[in-house]
Amino acid sequence: MPVQNHSLYAQTTEETDIIDITPQVTKQVKESAIKNGCVTLFIPGSTAALTTIEFESGVINDLKKSIDRMAPEDMYYEHNERWGDGNGYAHVRAAMIGPSLNIPVIEAKLALGTWQQIVLIDFDNRPRERRILVQISGD
Ligand code: ZN
Fold this sequence. Notes:
The termini are close together. This protein has helices spanning 22-32, 57-70, 78-83, 88-97, and strands spanning 3-11, 17-20, 37-42, 48-53, 100-106, 109-110, 117-122, 129-138. The chain has four helices and eight strands; from the N terminus they run ββαββαααββββ.
């Protein structure tokens, strides 16, 4: 089974960024010429995460507020004492959502729902140039 490794990149800010990466992933799956298989997305780094959501501003704001309630930025985090980088909340948030996704590729298309987009969420408290690994396997 052929396996192809690609990357995509996103520039983020010091605020929580939620970025729709569906167009880039769709393009890479198309260019891979793989018809049936799977795409694995993985973000190396412990302050960012990948998930899917309907990419519209209402639910994006709802997600941001829900994440704020789960791991508020202004709480006490032991991590901040250890490193002094002030991003304990970002590590906890990223761990709760997770760093990877697996999406089936069926007849050369991502098996996403109509209202389901792939998003990168960057929680870190400084701008980052993020690299996302895109591994496409199948035949
Ligand atoms: Zn840290």
